[in-house]
Amino acid sequence: MAAKLDISSNYITEKRAHIINISTMIENSNVTPFRSKTTHGYPCFYCRKALGTLEELKSHTNQDHKSIDVKKFLYKYGPENIVVNVDVTDLKCKICDSKIANLSELKKHLNQTHKKQMCLKYTDRLVPFKLEKDLVCQICDGTFQTFGAVERHMNLHFRNYVCKECGTGFITKYRLKVHVKSIHVGGNYPCEVCGKVFPSYQKKKTHTDAVHKLFKRFKCPKCSVRFTEYFARQRHLVEVHGAAPIKYKCNVCDREFDRKYNLSRHLKKDHLKEKNNECETCGYTCFTVTELKVHMIKHVGERTHECDVCKKAYARKKTLKEHMKIHTNDRRHVCAVCGQAFIQKCSLKGHIKTHHPELNME
Q1: How confident is the model at residue 361 (pLDDT cuts 50, 70, 90)?
Q2: Rounded-to-integer distance, Cα 202 and Cα 181, Å
């Protein structure tokens, strides 16, 4: 086997290294570069013209940009932004017409078989897609509901830059910077309109655009209607255009959810039984911070909810509401065996335990 050819990193910048690798692989294979998919189609990487199908994109790229110098084009990008989406359908080497399994094999093939010099120590910046199957990850075969979801998912496979705060990986340093600024950089960013304070500028901007400017960034692909929220557009597609609703199915209990976040929350709470929020006073644990706040009323809450009849006070409004059933004689909890009715469920449970022990009441 031929020895690998590697350009010494002592005489090359990171930007130039990525440009050499990307241009070598694009120029010597049949991959088709493109920009992120939009509602209008697949934008050409070089001129941004949107093409409706893979064949149209390939034909346009090969005819209109066959003489383009890929290296010179890539030098327009800043070093933190260099990343190229490519279609790898029927991947082949242009030099010998060999079929290649994936981009990693292409890199080895060009370097070892055809002696193409490449910067092997640098991470890859070509991200593989098959536009005929654009909702399937070409690395792990995971399936997704939108092209944007597949594209974001690729950060898991190209962890070139990792967030020190939460461990999330990103393809480029720029994407990592955006993540840190949006999620982890603390601060007080008040909305100029309503005064609501946000922990990051990005969250404040999102709020201002959606709530006050009513900026409708999500356009329906079937008509001209626009929406401020992604999920509002999805409801519109289902209700107006008859599209199949997006469902995320639990692989444990077969429950379905309309949002991936809700499925994740369900798995953690109902199946993994996560209880990561602990009371420092009594050791009580629960799933959410909200549940813990409600619990803490037991320890520090003032009894501000007073009964108008007997003046007994409670820390929780819900507890006062239950108490009021005593005064209204609301006996809604009825024993199924003897018909005796009780105001509180706990009283019914005690009755069954004493008088009807054969029943197993949860």
Answers
A1: very low
A2: 8
- Does 303 reside within a domain? no
**b/e per residue 191-221 (b: at least 16 CB within 10 A):** eeeeeeebebebebbebbeeeeeeeeebebe
* 348 lies in some domain: yes
Per-residue burial over 75-86, b = 16 or more CB atoms within 10 Å of its CB, e = otherwise: eebeeeebbbbb
Residue 342 domain boundaries:
331-362
Tell me if 280 is assigned to some domain.
no
Please state the three-class secondary structure of 53-81 as a single string.
CHHHHHHHHHHHCCCCCHHHHHCCCCCCC
pLDDT attached to residue 4: 52
22 touches 119 (CB < 8 A): no
Give the tens place of pLDDT for each residue, 144-171.
Answer: 777 888 888 888 888 888 888 777 888 8
Name the one residue in this structure whose structure tokens are 């409708």: 216
Does residue 264 fall inside a structural domain? no
Cα(338)–Cα(17) distance, rounded to whole angstroms? 83
Supply the pTM of this predicted model: 0.53
Q: Please report the sign of the dihedral spanned by the C-alpha atoms of residue 210, residue 214, residue 216, residue 217.
A: negative
Domain count, the chain: 2
pLDDT in tens, 29-69: 999 999 888 777 889 999 989 998 889 999 999 999 988 88
Cβ(352)–Cβ(340) below 8 Å: no
Rg, C-alpha atoms of the chain: 30
Domain end point (choices 105, 140, 156): 156
Over residues 184-206, the pLDDT tens digits come to 776 678 888 888 888 777 778 88
CA-nearest of 230, 228, 224, 195 to 209 is 228
